[in-house]
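name: query_chain
kind: protein
chains: 1
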Amino acid sequence: MKVDVLYAVGIDVLEGIKRFSGREDLYSKFLFKFVEDPNFQECREDMKNGDIESAFCHAHALKGITGNLSMNQFYQHLYAVVELLRAGDVEHAKELFSDLEIEYDEVIDAIEASKA
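structure:
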């Protein structure tokens, strides 16, 4: 796993490994599976279609996953979107989500590039 590539996009690998009881193999397994997780794409579609309740559910699930994987930078930005959706501030949530889409692609690219 190329740790420097992950740190560059705000993923704290050492913290993540600690969350997985020091098991780097287990952390890596779940980190690499993140690229297959459908929650971001589902949230994107929900936001476009105006299904805010479903968008909130997918964003909230994704927030938990990114927190557990110590994707700290992405988690913080996602947290803001979740809280805006929770408060019913859909317009601001959509604005932030559009920036989040770029960051998501960067995170996915970094994970793919970090595979040994």
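note: The chain has a mean pLDDT of 96.
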